[in-house]
Amino acid sequence: MKRNTYCKFLLLVVFTLSVAFGCKEEIVNNPDYAAQMKSISFLTENYPPFNYEFEGEIYGVSTDILQGLFVEMNISAADISLELNDWETVYQQTLNEPNTMLYSVVRIPERENLFKWVGPIAPQKDVIIALGSQQISINDAAELATHTIGVIAGYSNIDQLIDLGVPQPNLIIVNGLDELYTGLVNGSYDCIAYSEISHGLVVTAMGYNQADFEFVYTIQVSQLYFAFNLSTSDEFINFIQHTLDDFKMNKTEDGSSVYEKILNKYQVIAHVEDNITEQMVIDLVNTTSSHLSEDASSTLFKINAGEAPYIDAANPSLYAFVYDTDVTMVAHATNPLLVGVNFKGKTDAAGKPFRDEIISGALSHGTGWEDYIYTKPDQSGLYYKTTYYRLVTGNDGKQYVVCAGRYK
């Protein structure tokens, strides 16, 4: 291995889950899938914090998620081959060799038909980075096109920059991270294109001062995936996708999923603008509260069925969920796996018992807001979220705490 520098009310829910888990159990117990998983060479590059080598071992967000899938499939990590090399080598190897998978890969139109995809794994933001001493300011794509930009061979940001109108001669292609940053520091080009979240780890490892660099332009926020060679069977891809979906959705005993814990471990927590205003959140909570006071049984059924208006069809991040005053989830518009679970004392991935605090706040003063970190239903990743809550008495005489939130 070459070293380099880096997942309707109770009956509906029970029926749906029994079918889903029945299918999964049948597939997990099929030795052909386990054998196929063990036959794959899993290829990666140094791209911290998603995948990177340290003291001969491969770590990172995507590596930990992949190993989580091995656990879900009852496969020992000792039976799996992880290989690290430069990007262009592992990319071409996955394109051309059966039984290979590459991670982490940005899924863009130019690559869509080149691989079979499983994901998303996590979000990442490509940015333009310059030296602060150069005092470079880039306000739009037209200004971006006037600069020379260092890029790593084969990276998706090359296509993104060309789509933004950057002339190809302005893109200076290098072979790896050392060369990319050395060229920037030495003045071989004005700026570089790289991942925002990876930048700090890289410059620290290379001995540079983070304060000497600036983010001067955002190219694009995209999603990272596992990319399998095209010869991989569709049935196997579908199984891996379902396994990943379950891995991301299922909460552990302490209240957060292993997926969330992995993202928090590497501090891959993002801010995001989701076009949801505080007033939209308040309106949904008030509407849901009014419906519960009029017909609690029917309202809970409709929330768990994911019906409007309890989830916004145009923006699935805006959805209602309801607790009882004992911190048990009684309705959730996007994740029926949580219904019936008591979350008393359970926390987010960072250890905050936000659900207890929501119930305590509702019982103390009726309404309020609570901040925490959480996943987003329409994409991968861990995000900063704020939730508005309201205490209401249903027509069944029971007290409920109605919630909805927005990411920020």
Keywords, separated by commas or semicolons:
D-Maltodextrin-Binding Protein, domain 2, 13 helices, 408 residues, 16 strands, alpha/beta, six-stranded mixed β-sheet, single chain, 3 domains, Beta-Lactamase
Average of per-residue pLDDT values: 90
Helical content band: 25-40%
Strand order of the largest sheet: 4-1-5-10-6-9-7-8
Tally of individual helices: 13
Portion in strands: 25-35%
Total DSSP E strands: 16
What string gives the helices and strands in order? HHEEEHEHEEHEHEHEHEHHEHHEEHEEE
Name of the CATH class of the largest domain? Alpha Beta
Terminal-residue CA separation: 41 Å
How would a crystallographer describe the biggest sheet?
Answer: 8 strands, mixed
- General form: globular
Under the CATH scheme, the architecture of the largest domain is 3-Layer(aba) Sandwich
Structure characterization notes:
- The protein has 408 residues and is α/β, with parallel strands linked by helices.
- Strand 12 (321-324) and strand 13 form a beta hairpin.
- It has helices at 10-28, 31-39, 61-72, 87-96, 141-144, 157-163, 177-186, 196-205, 234-249, 258-265, 278-294, 296-304, 354-365, and strands at residues 41-44, 52-54, 57-59, 81-84, 100-106, 116-131, 149-152, 171-174, 191-195, 213-228, 269-270, 321-324, 329-332, 367-376, 379-393, 399-407.
- The chain has an 8-stranded mixed β-sheet. Strands 11, 12, 13, 14, 15 and 16 form a 6-stranded mixed β-sheet that branches. The protein has a two-stranded antiparallel sheet with strand order 2-3.
- The chain folds into 3 domains: 10-122 and 223-269, Periplasmic binding protein-like II (D-Maltodextrin-Binding Protein, domain 2), CATH 3.40.190; 125-222, D-Maltodextrin-Binding Protein, domain 2 (3-Layer(aba) Sandwich), CATH 3.40.190; 278-407, 2-Layer Sandwich (Beta-Lactamase), CATH 3.30.450.
- It is built from 13 helices and 16 strands.
- Residues 1-29 have low confidence and may be disordered.
- Helix 3 runs antiparallel to helix 10 (258-265) and helix 11 crosses helix 12 (296-304).
